[in-house]
């Protein structure tokens, strides 16, 4: 496989204040001058592996097959936690073994995993605090040049990678119990409850409860209610979302990631 | 026209916290793997069509001819508002029909407009809340591959697109009355009053009034007054700007978008 | 030298709110359509030449040789301050003559400097407030197309460029006295004291004092202490850094750039 203009996406908790993202890109370009670098997000909250896991789950398939996804949220940088190269669904993923890949694993999207152990990826010049730049970027660049995941080190069984504890969505009689997953830039409240997972077809939605409020209006789009009014819809990633038309729903509701959400359904909702 | 390395600029209100910009770029790369993606800004205030209109007016011509400008500020996403492909001045513009293109229209920069109606751009998988990713990006990518705007749907007359209500600049005897358009990152106060439009030549400037302050110093550059002092200049987009040398003028003046600005001129100022 | 896919990095104080970075990139693409544009950072504090100088010192070598580094932090824009093209260590640097290049000069990384005086880089259409877009970007693009620095104007001796006053690191008997250089996105406190400069080998570290606190724990990585505990390490750019495991050290310490830092060493520390 020769792939000189491979796409490499970047997902980190580095923010954009410092030159860290730029340094990471320099390392990628050193390894593969013709790669195409795309920022997925650098605003994962610091050290928040679960948000990184959700981000890559919902976004990787937006890119063409063959894309390499480098995800650096790495509070254990420099310690013995391995660095992994995973492949599946036509995509590649490079990340520390700390749970980042666990929602891809849950979704059965991962076909192979290898642990990076080849000594030339760990020269003496590696900074113990920036494996993203000094190890993972060279690995991603080697993949972009056409490298085979098996070249980097031994195979790892899926059940042996670390998993994040994602609060489960619980299906009870007549309702689904989940949580607020994140608040987006618009103040839209993205939940952990995927609409499609339970065969949801819209007709069965009754109402949604969050922080003592009950929202009964299910719409397809934002602009179907009055400006400022709350609504529920199925968002562009397939999850239930609480929003307000041209207003900040999270501020109206005063909610935060982790708050409980209940979706009441008319039909049966067993998983 | 074959344009495999076409430039596509992106202007949105998505912010950079979420993976939405990355997902948009993934869709663009799926449609045109060799396109060059440039962020113009993703910090248009949420749903603020007027700021998007000013942004594209002042920035498109900085790019080479043939560039495709994708502008996604779309509070009506998923409703019946059309998606437009406009062409003019050697550039292409893809945006919802909500006023984004209206300042280009005022400037007589638009030559043709087509409404996207071709069914293959509206497959069943389109998310009703993310037409930027699922409709507009594929359209922009098709243009980048060499597509002709007429392929996407019927022609639309310029007078039939939606216009934003931009507060007019009023020329009275001896003065021009406008508004604060936006506050930039440095605290520079960008007004709606274009210096060149009224044949302004600098010599006729007398003073500028804003929020009870009168500023008489017109300079060419920031560093001509003492640090912290206020000044007026013609900014890099051709508008009157109120600034302070190495300080935040908007904080000093305590002003915001929409506040009134009066430029007093010595000569006559009828439009 | 023909270098059609040259890398151009961008370091500015423009922020990402306004379309200024996009306009700069448009100008670069007009001059060199095939260049590869990489954001190093746009979050240098407004007009902060010293931070820009540290940023380029610590980051340029992360990029492949032949890269062109455009640094636009330019409070004197439009005045008589020259624009410089420097070359050294296989890299090129374009910046105003205001001190941005001074830490590269201190490090003896600069081999040649030329002042941009060629009249065609100063057409009548240059905005006096945006030389980044209208002068420096065309210069960087001309370098990217294979231009020779000597083409732009006369040679300048290294001792004639402007230098920023970086507070010196002072080596006394048993200690090094420096400052907080910047606080990063994670709250890590980056100091002005480079570990390697004084032959530091870790064994000689005794403790670090900052704002009345004494930190004795020197580690290689963040995850070696309890969550929330303070530590000192040598950061990925080679400087002493004060951090906390999965917590914001700057908030814990309540420190800011410019605050004093003392590193106590067991051995001798004369420079």
Strand segment tally of chain A = 14
Greatest interface by residues involved? A-B, 34 and 32 residues
Helical amount among residues of chain A, as a percent range? 10-25%
How much of the sequence lies in strands of chain A comes to: 25-35%
How much is the radius of gyration of chain A in Å?
20 Å
Write down the secondary-structure element order of chain A: EHEHEEEHEHEEEEEEEHE
Query: What general form of chain A does the structure show?
Result: elongated
Q: Average pLDDT value of chain A?
A: 93
* Class derived from helix and strand content of chain A: alpha+beta
Oligomer designation = homotrimer
Low-confidence region ranges of chain A = none
Biggest pleated-sheet summary of chain A: 8 strands, antiparallel
Briefly summarize what is shown:
The structure is a homotrimer of 271-residue chains. Chain A is an alpha+beta fold and 271 residues long.
How does this model look, in words?
Three copies of one chain form a homotrimer. Chain A has five helices and 14 strands. Chain A has 271 residues and is an alpha+beta fold. In chain A, strands 7, 8, 9, 10, 11, 12, 13 and 14 form an eight-stranded antiparallel beta sheet that branches. In chain A, helix 1 packs parallel to helix 4. The model of chain A has no long low-confidence stretch (mean pLDDT 93). Chains in contact: A-B, A-C, B-C. Chains A and B meet through strand 1, strand 2 and helix 2 of A and helix 1 of B.
């Amino acid at each position: 496989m020769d792939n000189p203009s491979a796409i490499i996406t970047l997902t980190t908790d580095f923010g954009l204040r410092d030159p860290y993202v730029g340094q990471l890109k320099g390392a990628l370009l050193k390894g593969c001058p013709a790669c195409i670098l795309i920022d997925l997000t650098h605003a994962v909250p610091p050290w928040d592996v679960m948000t990184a896991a959700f981000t890559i789950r919902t976004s990787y398939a937006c890119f063409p097959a063959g894309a390499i996804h480098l995800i650096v949220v790495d509070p254990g940088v420099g310690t013995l936690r391995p660095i992994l190269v995973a492949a599946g669904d036509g995509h590649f993923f490079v990340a520390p073994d700390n749970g980042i890949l666990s929602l891809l694993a849950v979704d059965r999207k991962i076909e192979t995993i290898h642990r990076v152990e080849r000594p030339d990826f760990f020269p003496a010049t590696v900074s113990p605090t920036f494996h993203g730049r000094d190890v993972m970027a060279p690995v991603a660049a080697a993949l972009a040049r056409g490298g085979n995941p098996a070249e980097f080190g031994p195979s790892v069984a899926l059940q042996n990678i670390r998993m994040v504890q994602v609060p489960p969505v619980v299906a009870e009689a007549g309702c689904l119990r989940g949580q607020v997953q994140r608040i987006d830039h618009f103040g839209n409240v993205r939940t952990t409850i995927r609409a499609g997972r339970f065969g949801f077809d819209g007709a069965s939605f009754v109402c949604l409860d969050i922080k003592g409020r009950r929202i009964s209006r299910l719409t397809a789009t934002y602009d179907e209610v009055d400006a400022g009014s709350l609504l529920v819809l199925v968002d562009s990633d397939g999850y239930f979302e609480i929003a307000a038309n041209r207003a900040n729903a999270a501020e109206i509701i005063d909610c935060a990631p982790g708050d409980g959400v209940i979706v009441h359904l008319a039909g049966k909702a067993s998983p």
